[in-house]
């Protein structure tokens, strides 16, 4: 893999990203910013973030295969890497059956999409695949630089590494709340987990595979589930939870900082950067 995303990155929805955020994230020492919430296929936001910075990698987490034709995103990919070689990673994924009226076989759709990216000249090393279950993880290992699992735990990371083998990028997302009050932290984190993820079959199936019960997943999620999916505590404690993914076999972990009332996440990212030794 020629794209160095570093050990720690930031996952943030496209609505909360802009050049100023990217400049500070780079200064804080993070290796990558993952653009969430299904960025459109023109990849204009990724280009703007790259234009504003010098080193940090920009990745999509993820371009939804149902929303953006592969040919469209391939053209955008080539435009961007011509300007910023080795600094852009195209993350793609299948989305959810509940969100797509024309949803068909997820696996067949992923294979067809990757085939089209091949035909359009998007290199294997320049793309990653959203993957949770064994079949998708193996596909990510075979057809892309690696996997970008979302809403997972270090236990999932450990199993995923065993499935994909060595030399394959494994870059999970981890939600975090910097707050030492557990009840307050759960109150911030639970809505982000419950809606929509605890109501989507692929995420529920993955959590059940990991040993959680239907009771854990219902009614907003049990406290134990929320604690597993949303790391909380002071910056040092949260840093340890991020590092647990690396110890379980991840190459890179991207933190999604959750805040009460949609507050600016940069103060927490500054604290976390210091705790991780990035500065």
Describe the model.
GO terms for molecular function: oxidoreductase activity, acting on paired donors, with incorporation or reduction of molecular oxygen. It holds the Pfam family Bac_luciferase. This is Putative F420-dependent oxidoreductase. Helix 4 links the parallel strand 5 and strand 6 (127-129). This protein has twelve helices and eleven strands. It has a single domain, classed as Alpha-Beta Barrel (TIM Barrel), CATH 3.20.20.30. The strands form two sheets. Strands 1, 2, 3, 4, 5, 6, 9, 10 and 11 form a nine-stranded parallel beta sheet that branches. The protein has helices at 19-27, 44-52, 70-83, 106-119, 134-143, 154-164, 182-194, 201-209, 214-217, 223-229, 235-247, 266-276; strands at 8-13, 32-36, 57-60, 63-64, 88-93, 127-129, 146-147, 169-170, 173-178, 230-233, 253-257. The mean pLDDT is 96. With 279 residues, the protein is an alpha/beta fold.
Distance between the termini: 25 Å
Rg value: 17 Å
The whole-number mean of residue pLDDT values reads 96
User: What's the architecture in CATH terms?
Assistant: Alpha-Beta Barrel
Q: What name goes with the CATH superfamily?
A: Luciferase-like domain
Helicity level: 40-55%
Order of helices and strands: EHEHEEHEHEHEHEEHHHHEHEH
Unreliable stretches (pLDDT < 50, length at least 5) are none
Beta strands, count: 11
Q: What is the highest CATH level, the class?
A: Alpha Beta
SSE class = alpha/beta
Work out the strand percent: 15-25%
Shape: globular
Count the domains. Answer: 1
Number of helices: 12
**CATH topology label:** TIM Barrel
Major sheet characteristics: 9 strands, parallel
């Amino acid at each position: 893999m020629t794209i160095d995303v570093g050990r720690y990155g930031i996952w943030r929805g496209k609505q909360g990203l802009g050049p100023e955020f990217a400049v500070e994230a780079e200064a804080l020492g993070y290796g990558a910013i993952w653009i969430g919430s299904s960025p459109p296929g023109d990849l204009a936001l990724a280009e703007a973030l790259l234009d504003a910075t010098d080193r940090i990698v920009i990745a999509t987490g993820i371009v939804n295969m149902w929303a953006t034709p592969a040919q469209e995103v391939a053209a955008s990919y080539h435009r961007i890497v011509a300007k910023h070689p080795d600094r852009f990673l195209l993350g793609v994924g299948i989305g959810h059956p509940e969100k797509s009226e024309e949803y068909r076989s997820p696996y067949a759709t992923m294979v067809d999409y990757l085939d089209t990216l091949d035909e359009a000249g998007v290199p294997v090393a320049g793309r990653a695949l959203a993957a949770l279950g064994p079949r998708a993880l193996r596909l990510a290992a075979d057809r892309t630089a690696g996997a970008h699992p979302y809403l997972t735990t270090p236990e999932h990371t450990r199993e995923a590494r065993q499935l994909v083998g060595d030399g394959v990028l494994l870059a999970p997302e981890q939600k975090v709340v910097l707050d030492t009050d557990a009840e307050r932290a759960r109150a911030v984190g639970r809505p982000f987990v419950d809606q929509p993820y605890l109501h989507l079959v692929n995420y529920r199936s993955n959590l059940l595979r990991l040993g959680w019960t239907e009771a854990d997943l219902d009614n907003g999620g049990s406290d134990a589930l929320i604690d597993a999916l949303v790391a909380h505590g002071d910056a040092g404690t949260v840093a340890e939870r991020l590092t647990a993914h690396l110890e379980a076999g991840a190459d890179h972990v991207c933190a999604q900082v959750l805040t009460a009332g949609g507050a600016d996440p940069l103060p927490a990212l500054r604290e976390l950067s210091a705790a991780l030794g990035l500065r």
